[in-house]
Amino acid sequence: MPLETIKPNLADPVLDDGDHERFSHIILEGFTPKKGDFIPVGTSVVESIVTGAPVTALCGKVWVPNRNPERYPLCPTCKDEAKKRGWDVPS
Ligand SMILES: [Zn+2]
Fold first, then answer.
1. Residue 15 — very low, low, confident or very high, per pLDDT cuts 50/70/90?
2. Which of 15, 21, 48, 83 is the most exposed place for a label (fewest CB within 10 A)?
């Protein structure tokens, strides 16, 4: 009986980060904005990159950030949620 070699399929790895990595999300960990407050994007993300702690975005996404989100456009769902609450959001 010949030994079978099981090869890992490494030919075409799919590096899908998920769409949460393609937007900057609004993260409200640690503070509660008042109506009219300006909501910064990404400060908690930067902190979380250091600590490795997962963050929860306003749109409900939970993930562990691993890169600075500032070069991505603002998540439309986060933006809508913030506007509904009367907060000032980055454009
Ligand atoms: Zn979002």
1. very low
2. 15
